[in-house]
Structures are given as C-alpha cells and as structure tokens.
Amino acid sequence: MWRKILNSFNSVKCSAHNPSLLANNVKYLSSFVSGEPTGPLVKTAIPGPRSLAMLSEMKKIQISDAVQLFADYSKSIGNYLYDVDGNILLDVYTQISSIPLGYNHPELLDVLQDKENIRTFINRPALGVFPGENYPQRVQNSLLRIAPKGHTEVTTMACGSCSNENAYKAIFVWYRRKQRGDKSYTPEEETSCVMNQLPGVSDLTLLSFKGAFHGRTFGTLITTHTKPVHKLDIPTKDWPIGTFPRYKYPLEEFVRENEEEDRRCLAEVEELFDRYNKRGKTVAGVVIEPIQSEGGDHHASPAFFQELQRIAKKNGAALLIDEVQTGGGTTGEFWCHDHFNLDHPVDIVTYSKKMLIGGYFSLPEFRPREGYRIFNTWMGEPSKVILLEKVVEIIKRDKLIENVRVTGDVLLNGLKDFGKRYPNVVKNVRGRGTFCAFDCVSMAKRDQLVEQLKVEGIQSGGAGPVAVRLRPSLVFQPHHASIFLDRLEKALKKMD
Amino acid sequence: MWRKILNSFNSVKCSAHNPSLLANNVKYLSSFVSGEPTGPLVKTAIPGPRSLAMLSEMKKIQISDAVQLFADYSKSIGNYLYDVDGNILLDVYTQISSIPLGYNHPELLDVLQDKENIRTFINRPALGVFPGENYPQRVQNSLLRIAPKGHTEVTTMACGSCSNENAYKAIFVWYRRKQRGDKSYTPEEETSCVMNQLPGVSDLTLLSFKGAFHGRTFGTLITTHTKPVHKLDIPTKDWPIGTFPRYKYPLEEFVRENEEEDRRCLAEVEELFDRYNKRGKTVAGVVIEPIQSEGGDHHASPAFFQELQRIAKKNGAALLIDEVQTGGGTTGEFWCHDHFNLDHPVDIVTYSKKMLIGGYFSLPEFRPREGYRIFNTWMGEPSKVILLEKVVEIIKRDKLIENVRVTGDVLLNGLKDFGKRYPNVVKNVRGRGTFCAFDCVSMAKRDQLVEQLKVEGIQSGGAGPVAVRLRPSLVFQPHHASIFLDRLEKALKKMD
C-alpha cells in the first residue's frame, strides 16, 4: 500500500505544491508549514567549509566533538534544516526529537509579534514565588489541555533531566510520607538529613532497566544504562536494574517468544523487588520509558506495561513513565503510554523536548505537603508555556496526531518493505506513528548508513549500538515520508 | 555619610527625576531604566485579592505554598515589581537574584524587535550537535567577554543545578583521567559502569561545606546543607562536609577571632581530605560558594579562599567556585572571587541566574576528551546568549559594576547605621557591593521584618535561619538605596 502512495508522490516529483495525485487515504494535500522546498539539496560535503570554519572557532571554546553541522535557523523551514553551506536536509531527527512543528512555523513567529508576549520572554520570573498574571490559565491552556489520562496536576522544569530528577524526589517524599503516616519529621530526621545521614535521608531506591536513558545528571544517571560514555568515572548508587524486553521481529512471527520474554523480564522485576526490599534498599518506584529511545528504540508490549503497573502497585511502589522523548504526539497518541490500555492512570509522567518545557504530571498523592520540597529558582519558564499553548492549539486544529498516524503507516510500511528487499542492511523494523526505527548489522554499518543518508539529503540519527531512529516532527506528512523513503533507498543501494 | 545622601534624597521625595541634590560621590543622576515610578506604592494587603484568586487557581494545579504574589510583568519596570493588585514594590530580591538589569529594560525589549533574533527564540537547537550560524561568535561576545581571570573555555547549561551537576562530572572525569594517565578505559570499566559497578564508576567524592547551597538535583543535593526541607527523604552519599567560617561582626572588632575561625575551618578541610582519601573515598574536588547565599549570607575572608585553593592543589583536587548567585556583578566585581586575590585561576566557575543562562567556565585540562561526556539535548539556549550579549554590552557601557560599588557603599553604610541604632533587630551587617545582608535575632523576627518591609513597599527575601538578604539588580542606584533605607527604617520602628 505504501508503495502506491510513494509512487503517486514520485510521479509528482515529491512536490508539496502539486499534491493532486495523492492516494485517497492521505488527507493533507499540502504542507502544514508553507514555504518548504520541494526536496533536499546537497551542495557540499557535510559539514561543509563554512560549518568547518565555525567548528574550528567553537573548538577553541568548548568540546565540540558531537557537532555535525552549523545550521541556518533563519532559512530552515518546516521539515527542512538548512545549513550554513547552503545544504538543505529533510530532517527526520529534529534536534534529537525536540521540534514539534518544524522550523519557523509562521504562527510561532507570530507569538513574538505580540508586545505582551515579548515581555514574558525577557522578564523571567522565579515561577514558584512570583508567577505572572494569568499563569495558571496559561498552564491550563497548554500543559493541562494535553494531560495524560487521570491527571490534573503538573509541575514545570527547565529540561528533561531536571524533570526526572524532581519526579524522583517526589516519589521518595511520597513513599516516606506513606511510611510515616500522619507523623511529622522527628528532630533527629531534620538534623541528620542536612549532614547526609540516616534517618533524615533515605536508603530508598528506584528500579530502572538495562538500556534505559533518563538523563545525565547524578540522580537520573543512576537509572541510565545505555553507553559507557555517559557513565564512566561518575559516582553512582546500587539501585535495582531490570531487563527491558528484547523482542524478535517481525512481531507477528515471534508471538510466543516475545510473550516468554515479557514473562522473563517481569519475573526478574518481582525478584528485584524482593531482593532490594529485603536488603533494606526498599524500591519506592519503577522508572521506565514507553519505548527505550536513546538505548536503541526497544519496544515492549501493552501487556508488559500493564503487568509492570500491577507489580509496582502490589509492592506499594510508584510507576514513573518517562515520556521525555516519546511524548508530544509522534507515536500516534499524544502520550505513548496511551497505547498500553493500562488499568490505572500512571503515577508520574515526565516530559520535555517537543513539549518545549520540562516537568511532570503527577497524581494528587504525589504533591508534597510543604512548599520548597520541589523547587528551584526558575521552575521552567512562562515563555515556553506561551509557545506550547500555540503548539497545542495547532496540533488540535490541524489534526496533527491523525497526520502522524497516516504518515507513520507510510513510513513503517516503507521500512518493512526495505526490510524484505535489503535484509542485509534493514532489520527489525519497528515503530509507533512516525516514531520508527530499524537495526543495522553493526554499529559501523549503522554509522555508515546515517552518513550516506546525509549525502542523500536526509538528517537522521542513531540510537543504541545499531539502530537508526526516525524522529520527524508532527508536520511530517506522507509526501515527506515518500521523499525520505526514496532517499533511503538510494542510500541502501550504495550500502549493498 | 550615607545619612547625608539619604537626607538629600528625602528632601526631593526620593524622585529619580529630580536628583539634583545628590551627594558628590553619586555619579548617576537619573535611573538607568526610564519610566520608573518615584517610589513604591502599596494599595492592598500582599497578596491582594487578585493575587489570591489566581493563587487559588494555581493550587488546583500544583503546590503553590511558596507563592508570594502574582506579578504584572507588563507594568513592572526597572527596580519596581508591579503586582496584579496595583501594588508597586521596590524589588531588592529580583526573582531570587536573577534579574540583571531590572524589569523591561527597553534595550532587551528591542532585542525581540529584530526578526532574526525572533527566529532564534523559536528554533531551539540541540546546541551540542546543530548549533546555529555564528554561535561561537555570540558566545565570545557574551560569556567569554566576562570570563573569570584565566578562563577561555565555557560550557552552557539550562539552569544552576545542571551547571553544578555537569561541573561535578567534569571534575570526576578529569580526576580519573589523571589517575589513568595515557591509558584508555578497560573493557571491564566500560561494561561495569553501565551497571553502576566499580571499576567503571568511581567512589570519588567532593568536599562541600555546612550551610552550602549548590542545587536540589541529586548530585548537587549531596553538597547542599542548608535546610531540612531540601534534603529530607532523598537518598544521598557520604561525601566530606567541612565547616564554612562563621565570623563575628563587626569584622574590625573581631580580627583575631575570625582569623582563628579561618584556621579552624581550614584545618578541618585538611583533616577531611586525609580521612576520606584513606577510606578510599578520594576527594576529587572542593565545591564552595564565595558567599554562602541561600544558607544565610555567610562570608569568608580572601585569606581563607587563598589557603583553601592551596590545600586543594596540594591534594590534587579541583576547586569549584559556585557563582550561581554571586556572579554577574552585584558584589562589585563581575565575579565575587575577584575579591579574593587568589594565587591561580579557579579550576571551575559555575554560573546561572543573572547570567540568564547556566553553565561553567573551566580551565582547559577539564575539557573531556570524548564528545557526549558532558552533554544533553539543549545544552542551554542560544536565545539566552543573545540576551546576555546585550546585558553585557549595557553593563560595560553604563559602568554598572561601578554603580554597584557606589550604591553598595550607600546601602552597607546605611545598614551599619541601623545596626547601631536598632541593635535588637539589625545584627551582623555585612556585604560586598549591593550583595548585602543582616541578621535578626530569630527566624520569627526575620520573617516578621520581611513581611513588614512588604507593607512598606519593599520586596526583600530571607536567607538561612535569621538573615535578610538584599539582591537588587545592577540598575539599583543610590536613590533606590535611599528609598530602601527610608522604608526599612519605617519597618524597623514598627518592630521595636
């Protein structure tokens, strides 16, 4: 089916401006962001000479080994990232999955034409102490408009790591309050905690998973288990680490094996609860991504998550779902865990990236009883809430989640077809919405493919040791998917 | 002397618009930000009815126990914070010390009139991977233009906690590289670290001080020792905690006692190095504020810091000076440690708040050898760099550090005079530049004074158990200090 759509697009030279030959089920007849080019354009090696000159300046200032190119954010538009050498890349990576509506969406530019809004951008308050006029209403119009099921409370933070750090703290505070009952802190607790001593501090733990990524600050890093480069040399703690399922693909051919994998991983979680609880390192919560992203785009079944929630509840532990990368609509639901049909609302859901602001949604029992327990100077930023308000309005109005579903079908079916036709390069195709990935046979082959894709005008990214991850924006449409698949096939042919 | 200035101001009704009677040494004859009112105006109890209505909305969404009022950031101007009930407060707290040039500085508003700049505000890149055109130049024009002595490298982060978290990581990475010499990581290190095990992770520690505040995320919280509310229930680590000097005031009357206090604290630092190093919890660095701010505005002498740096060097440990609150000019030097006449540049200096963006300056040996060791999605934000570029330009052009020195003299002398005349309320007056504080006899009295100041139209804040801290912006001038002292005296009279 995707081939039909792809062919129809190819026949109009992938032009967003002449989409009359679209297949019937593709509802969006032009780009959501006007002014996009008709396709990528690669003029130089990437990074090109101007990028390299800027890079040499940047290297004088700081480590810059991860820099791929210098972008021209004035010219970048919609799904297209322009670089300073005049190259135009179709961007399916979107700043590590953090651009919801593509570049320079005209209605976001308009937000900053409003004089009142401009004042919000330059007068950054200490939000927890001196919030601005109508701030609660702004939060209602943005974050709470897309709150996960069962959630009416939200805390804002400046970035993804801080979102998880503070959500972890909220879990520990909640857990100890359950233990204390109605009693207040003892004087001994108050004195000892300041000097990092029990009983004021706790020996509680959080259970995380192999291959998980929750951030690089000290608390989140305890629960991150992707690459040595994040972890080497940094002091940490002994918290339980479970196994996130590793499925065999295609899923429909390995139903029994993958169910067995779920059972094995869940039994291990139960065993870890027992072991750590008995050792006095009580497990206060379970922290998990709905799709392990940085770790290599590993999926787990709804049944796995349902049972995990039951195990956490049975043990009196919180379940935190980290939607920093998966949240915001690109899985075809606003929150990826909406796919899981869970028994109960998730205790805590963290967000950042495409939400423009960080933070977490939490059930009412996770609200601390005292001010300043979850606090910092900025607590996020109202200017981001204003932008998010507009983003959410556009997502609803333009039915962008529906667009993700339609486009995701094109993308995933296209990748599956390549999986059959280029089995030596494209393996284990998987995805929800446009949040898709596939594996290569080795890290070297994966890195080579990502480079080759750039030569073909595609900005993509790796995930884990061998995966290519696709993280297009919400305005990535079937005709963009078509261009991507076309370019990917060109790259694959050069790999074979 | 300050009385003379104060009287001259009182005689012109504290008007910034008729400053002709200013004392000779007050060089600035009008406000740096035009459009300021002539003084505070209090119409309602604070929080007033509109603030209370918004607060009740906010309480539905999140914990709001620290909220003092809802501000009108459209009307707020210069040193004056307007609230939604029409109250006008002279702000000597500035959003927990995070507003460099007061509210709505016209030249900061102009930054957002520029169409190119607007695009920087809505296209937030993953700075470590896809920086924008001329970003290195922007960093040169802003952060590196005011780099601490001996520093040419800078890393950007989104907030103060992340600045310290990542600076701590840079210290651990640096220390272990020294230990390894030219050897690379062993396969065992690479495998073990991902599972939170030695030898890949480390048992290194950082030495912090009682009363220190470096943040509330897990790593920084290990080194924060202010209030139980920050620390209770949160798992932590056993790292060495020294004693920050507690001086007797006035300093000139207790020279011998305070020198003895320095010696005692430094001897304890040496002892902690020995004890932790022997236990295999090697101290990789010392983390300290140049003035303990959140902990209660505790100062230490230049001699203390000089010797502390020598002790760190002798032990092969890094010295990190946390200038998140003290940096940016309000101590009368751009960096507070500029007052200390240290033997060597400081290894790492962290910043945030009035710098608008977080991050750290570090000497070249603290640069990791591999990309992604110090990394996150956003790595700060270019829009903040653009604003900071303008802020730095204005600080230099308007000689705002000089203004801080002149105004600080007025403020500190005024407070010292109150210390003599209201000795039951104003104790231990201290400060550098306008970064001033004094103690009350108890927390209850301090809280009462901060409330009474609000009734008089002054927004101030507490620090530690008994201190009132003053954190005016860089555009706080002698005539503002005069108004503040006048209102403070009114409040003091009601306290006696």
Notes on the structure:
Chains A, B: Belongs to the class-III pyridoxal-phosphate-dependent aminotransferase family. Chains A, B: It comes from Daphnia sinensis. 2 copies of one chain form a homodimer. With 496 residues, chain A is α/β, with parallel strands linked by helices. The first copy, chain A, folds into 2 domains: 2-102 and 400-495, Aspartate Aminotransferase, domain 1; 125-380, Aspartate Aminotransferase, domain 2, CATH 3.40.640.10. Chain A has 16 helices and 16 strands. Chain A has helices at residues 2-11, 49-61, 94-97, 106-111, 115-122, 135-141, 160-180, 187-194, 218-222, 228-231, 255-278, 302-314, 382-397, 400-421, 443-455, 478-495, and strands spanning 80-82, 88-91, 154-157, 205-209, 241-242, 283-288, 291-292, 298-299, 318-322, 348-351, 358-362, 427-432, 435-439, 458-459, 461-463, 467-470. Chain A has a 7-stranded mixed sheet, with helices on both faces. In chain A, strands 12-13-16-15 form a 4-stranded antiparallel sheet, covered by helices on one side. In chain A, strands 1-2-14 form a 3-stranded mixed sheet. In chain A, helix 6 (135-141) runs parallel beside helix 13. Chain A starts with a helix and ends with a helix. At the A-B interface, helix 2, helix 4, helix 5, helix 6 and helix 7 of A face helix 2, helix 4, helix 5, helix 6 and helix 7 of B.
